[in-house]
Write a structure and sequence with these properties.
Chain A: It holds the Pfam family AAA_5. Chain A: This is MoxR-like ATPase. The complex is a heterodimer of chains A (about 290) and B (about 475). Chain A contains 14 helices and nine strands. The radius of gyration of chain A is 24 Å and the shape is elongated. Chain A has helices at about 10-20, 25-35, 50-60, 75-80, 85-95, 100-110, 120-125, 140-155, 185-190, 200-210, 215-230, 240-255, 260-265, 275-285; strands at about 40-45, 65-70, 80-85, 115, 130-135, 155-160, 165, 170-175, 190-195. Chain A folds into two domains: about 10-85 and about 115-195, Rossmann fold (3-Layer(aba) Sandwich); about 200-285. In chain A, about 50% of the residues lie in helices and about 15% in strands. Chain A is of the alpha/beta class. In chain A, a hairpin with a 3-residue loop joins strand 6 and strand 7 (about 165). By secondary structure, chain B is an alpha/beta fold. Chain B folds into four domains: about 5-70; about 105-210, no CATH class; about 235-255 and about 295-465, 3-Layer(aba) Sandwich (Rossmann fold), CATH 3.40.50; about 260-290, no CATH class. In chain B, about 50% of the residues lie in helices and about 5% in strands. In chain B, strands 3-2-1-4-5-6 form a six-stranded mixed β-sheet, with helices on both faces. In chain B, about 35% of the residues are buried. Classes of the chains: A alpha/beta (about 290), B alpha/beta (about 475). Chains A and B meet through helix 2, strand 1, helix 9, strand 9 and helix 11 of A and helix 2, helix 3, helix 9 and helix 11 of B.
C-alpha cells in the first residue's frame, strides 16, 4: 500500500467519527490494522449492528470510492469478476467487413473493448483509493469463496484472453457475514477478523444522539437501556441498532419524552417484528397492553 | 519478565492448547499487527491480537482470559492502587481478629464506594476498585492463595441491588418496566465487577505460581466443545443462544448438500425450448431439480434429571431444524412416555415450551427415575405407528436404567422398522457399561454415538439429514 489512509488507531476512530460512525477502540484498531497490514477485514455479527455501514464509513472517511459486491446464492464469476459482452461481440462479428480475416476479428472481439468489468475486477484495476465491500459472503456458494481466496491473496486476476491483471493499488477489502454458514478456515486465515456485537449502552446512546438530532440525552439513555433489556429476552429477532434509531425517531415524532409502559406498548412494533416476540416482551416487561 | 517474543510464542501456544485453531500464518500476522500498534496501549494490543488470532466469536472469552494472564494490566498491587496504611481494610477487635464483615465499618465504607461506582457505571473506577478490593480481601492472613470468594463475601455486591434500585427509581412505581430495566443494568454492572475480581485474582495467582499453570486451571473450553453436563448457568444461557444460529447453519449446509447432489430427471420441455436458440440442437440440457429426500424424524428423549441439560439442547435443535424434516414427533420419557410434539408448535415460545413440558407432560409412572424398559414398553403400546419405514428414529439418553429391565426386543423391533435408528449418549465413552449403564447392550441393536457438546451434536445432525 503506497499511502496510508489512517495514521493510527486513534486517527481511524476520529475520522470515522467525523463521518458519523462511532467506532469503539476495538473497531478503530482493527480497521487501522487492516489498512496498515493490507489485509482484508472479515466482519461478522448479528444483522443490523453496522457491518455494511462500517465499509461505507471507511470509504467516506478516506475519500475512497466504495465498490460493492452483494453476494447471493448462485453468484458466479461472470457476475463477480468479469464477462465478455456477448451481444456486442455478435454485433461486431456481423458488422465486420466480409474480406476481413477471421483471426483478426477474433482477436478484436476479445479485447478490452468488449470486457464487462464486475465489482472484483473493477476494484483491482482502479488506481484511485477504493473500498471493496463484499457483502454477506455467507450467502454465496462455496465456489465463490474459492475465487475470493485467489483474488484476495495476490490481488490479481488472470483473464485468459488479456493476460494477468494485477492491482495497481490494493483496495481496502471488507467482507461481511451474518454467519448463516461458517466461512472456510482458509478464507478466515487470510483475513483479519472483527466481531461486531450489539454495542455497549454508552456507545449506542451516542449513536442515537448522533443519528437523531433533537433527542434528549436522558430519553436516549432510557431507550438504549430498554432495548438492551429486550435483547436479553429470548426472542427471535433482537432489535438492531437501526431499529433503536428508528424507535428514537418514532418517539420524537410522537412527541413522547418519557419512555413508560404505555409509550413502549404503543410503539413496540418499531423494534420487535414478530408477534411472539411482542407477546413475550409485553409479558416480561409488564406492559399493560 | 521474559522477552516479548517469548511472551508471544507462549501466548499463542496456550491459545492453541485451549482449543483455538491458531495457524502459523495467523501467529505471524499477530506479530505484524502488534508491531503496528502502540504497545503501551493495552486495549490496542488486545484488539490487535483478537483481530489476527480469534476468528470465531465463541472463542473470544477464552482469548480474553488468556490475554489478561499473559499481558497483565498491573504487577503486584498495581500502580496507584497500593494499600493505604492509613485506611485499613478491616477493623480488628480486641483480640486482633477481624470483625465480621457485616458489622465492620471499614467494610461498610468500601461497600458505599462500590455502590457509588455501580450507580455511575464508571468502568475505569470499577476496575481500579476491583484491584484494590482483591489486594485487601482476596487473601486472608495465613492463606496461601488468592480467592475471589473472599472479596465477594466481604463486599457482597448482590445485596447492594435494593439500594441501587432505590436511588434510581425514586418516586416511581415499583415492579414495572423501569425497575426491570434498571435491575438489568445493575445486574450487568455487578457481573462486570465479579468478572473484574475474578480476572484480578487470576492475575495474582499467576504472579505467584506462573502463567502457564494458572491458564490451565482458569480456562474453560470454548463453547462448542463445552460439555453439556458440566456447563455453568451462564454458559447454559450462552449455549442456548447458540442453538438457533447452529440450526440455521446446519439447515443451509443441508440444503446446499442437496443442491450439489446428482441432477434430476431430464426436463424435456425446457431442453427443447433452449434448443431453439441453437437451431434445434440441444446444446444444453435442462434437468428437473431433484426432489429432496426429507426424512420423518421421531425423537425419543430421556427427560430425567441426569441428562436433562443434554435433552434440552437436542430438543431445541431438533425443533429449530424442523424444516429439514417432513414431520417431527418428539416423545419424552422418564419411566413412562408421553408425546411432547404439541409443545413445540411452530411459533411457540421455546423457553415456555420447556417449562410447560416439565410441568404438564405425563412422564412419571411410579418412581421418577429412568426406567428404559417400561418407557419403551409404553411407547410401543401407545405410539407404535409413529415409527414407520420412512422414519429416522433418534433415541437420546445415557442408557442407565437403574438396573431395571431393558425391553431389548421392543427396541430391536423399533430399530428394524425405522429407516434409520440412532442412539445419542451424553456420557463420555469411557463411562459406558460402568455401573447400571446398558450402553453396549442397546448399542448392539442400533448405532450409539457419544454426544456431549455442540460440535458432536452438529456433526451428528448433519449425518442424519
Amino acid at each position: 500500500m503506497t499511502d496510508a489512509m489512517f495514521a493510527s488507531p486513534a486517527d481511524a476512530g476520529r475520522r470515522l467519527a467525523d463521518v458519523r460512525y462511532l467506532a469503539d477502540d476495538a473497531i478503530a484498531t482493527t480497521v487501522f490494522l487492516a489498512q496498515a497490514l493490507g489485509k482484508p477485514l472479515l466482519v461478522e455479527g448479528p444483522a443490523g449492528v453496522g457491518k455494511t455501514e462500517l465499509a461505507k464509513a471507511v470509504a467516506a472517511a478516506t475519500g475512497a470510492e466504495l465498490i460493492r459486491l452483494q453476494c447471493y446464492e448462485g453468484l458466479d464469476e461472470a457476475r463477480a469478476l468479469y464477462e465478455f459482452n456477448y451481444k456486442k461481440q455478435l454485433l461486431a462479428i456481423q458488422a465486420a467487413p466480409a474480406d476481413r480475416a477471421w483471426q483478426e476479428t477474433h482477436d478484436d472481439i476479445f479485447s478490452e473493448e468488449f470486457l464487462l468489468e464486475r465489482p472484483l475486477l473493477a476494484a483491482i484495476r482502479r488506481s484511485d483509493p477504493t473500498v471493496l465491500l463484499i457483502d454477506e459472503a455467507d450467502k454465496a456458494d462455496v465456489e465463490v469463496e474459492g475465487m475470493l481466496l485467489e483474488i484476495l491473496s495476490d490481488f490479481q486476476v488472470t483473464i485468459p484472453e488479456l493476460g494477468t491483471v494485477s492491482a495497481v493499488r490494493r483496495p481496502f477489502v471488507l467482507i461481511t457475514s451474518n454467519a448463516a454458514r461458517e466461512l472456510s478456515e482458509a478464507l478466515k486465515r487470510r483475513c483479519l477478523y472483527l466481531y461486531l456485537g450489539y454495542p455497549a449502552p454508552d456507545r449506542e446512546r451516542d449513536i442515537v444522539l448522533a443519528q437523531v438530532p433533537g433527542i434528549e440525552a436522558e430519553l436516549a439513555e432510557q431507550l438504549v437501556r430498554t432495548v438492551g433489556t429486550l435483547r436479553d429476552l429470548e426472542i427471535k429477532k433482537a432489535p438492531s441498532i437501526a431499529e433503536t434509531v428508528d424507535w428514537a425517531r418514532t418517539l420524537l415524532a410522537l412527541g413522547l419524552d418519557d419512555l413508560d409502559e404505555a409509550a413502549v406498548g404503543r410503539t413496540l412494533g418499531v423494534v420487535l417484528k414478530h408477534v411472539s416476540d411482542q407477546e413475550r416482551a409485553a409479558k416480561e416487561l409488564g406492559l399493560s397492553g | 519478565m521474559a522477552s516479548l517474543v517469548d511472551r508471544h510464542t507462549g501466548f499463542v501456544a496456550e491459545l492453541r492448547r485451549a482449543g483455538l485453531p491458531v495457524s502459523v500464518a495467523e501467529g505471524l500476522d499477530a506479530v505484524r499487527a502488534v508491531r503496528a500498534v502502540d504497545l503501551l496501549d493495552r486495549e490496542s494490543l488486545r484488539a490487535a491480537y483478537a483481530a489476527t488470532v480469534v476468528k470465531r466469536p465463541q472463542h473470544r472469552a477464552t482469548f480474553d482470559t488468556l490475554f489478561d494472564l499473559w499481558f497483565p494490566a498491573a504487577v503486584g498491587d498495581g500502580a496507584g492502587a497500593a494499600r493505604d496504611p492509613e485506611r485499613p481494610a478491616r477493623t480488628l477487635d480486641d483480640d486482633g481478629r477481624p470483625v465480621p464483615a457485616a458489622l465492620d465499618p471499614q467494610v461498610r465504607r468500601r461497600r458505599d464506594e462500590l455502590a457509588e461506582l455501580l450507580l455511575s457505571g464508571d468502568d475505569a473506577g470499577l476496575r481500579r476498585f476491583a484491584r484494590t478490593a482483591v489486594a485487601e480481601y482476596g487473601r486472608t492472613p495465613g492463606q496461601e492463595s488468592w480467592f475471589s470468594s473472599g472479596v465477594l463475601s466481604a463486599l457482597s455486591p448482590e445485596t447492594l441491588m435494593a439500594r441501587l434500585l432505590e436511588s434510581v427509581l425514586t418516586g416511581r412505581e415499583r415492579g414495572g418496566m423501569a425497575e426491570r430495566v434498571a435491575r438489568r443494568t445493575f445486574r450487568d454492572r455487578i457481573a462486570r465487577f465479579s468478572g473484574l475480581v475474578a480476572g484480578e485474582v487470576r492475575r495474582r495467582i499467576a504472579e505467584d505460581t506462573g502463567v502457564e499453570r494458572t491458564a490451565r486451571i482458569a480456562v474453560r473450553p470454548p463453547l462448542e466443545r463445552l460439555d453439556f453436563a458440566g456447563a455453568t448457568r451462564a454458559e447454559m444461557e450462552a449455549l442456548r443462544r447458540e442453538v438457533y444460529p447452529l440450526a440455521r447453519k446446519l439447515a443451509s449446509r443441508l440444503v446446499q448438500k442437496q443442491r450439489h447432489g446428482r441432477r434430476g430427471r431430464l426436463d424435456f420441455r425446457r431442453t427443447v425450448r433452449a434448443s431453439l436458440a441453437s437451431g434445434g440442437v440441444p446444446l444444453t440440457t435442462h434437468h428437473r431439480p431433484r426432489r429432496p429426500h426429507r426424512p420423518e424424524l421421531v425423537v425419543l428423549c430421556d427427560a430425567s434429571d441426569s441428562v436433562s441439560a443434554f435433552a434440552h439442547f437436542t430438543l431445541l435443535l431438533t425443533f429449530a431444524l424442523r424444516e429439514q424434516f417432513s414431520k417431527v414427533r418428539a416423545f419424552a420419557f422418564i419411566d413412562a412416555t408421553d408425546e411432547i410434539t404439541k409443545y413445540f408448535a411452530p411459533g411457540a415460545d421455546i423457553t415456555g415450551a420447556m417449562t410447560r413440558l416439565a410441568a404438564e407432560a405425563d412422564l412419571v409412572w411410579i418412581t421418577g427415575r429412568s426406567n428404559y424398559g417400561h418407557a419403551f414398553k409404553v411407547f410401543d403400546d401407545r405410539y407404535r405407528d409413529a415409527v414407520t419405514s420412512r422414519t429416522s428414529l433418534l433415541i437420546l439418553g445415557d442408557a442407565r436404567s437403574n438396573y431395571g429391565e431393558l425391553s431389548l426386543p421392543i427396541v430391536r423391533s423399533m430399530a428394524d422398522r425405522a429407516r434409520h435408528a440412532y442412539w445419542l449418549n451424553p456420557e463420555p465413552r469411557a463411562q459406558w457399561d460402568t455401573g447400571d449403564s446398558a450402553a453396549s447392550r442397546y448399542g448392539e441393536l442400533l448405532p450409539m454415538y457419544e454426544c456431549r457438546n455442540l460440535t458432536q451434536l452438529a456433526a451428528f445432525i448433519e449425518e442424519l439429514a
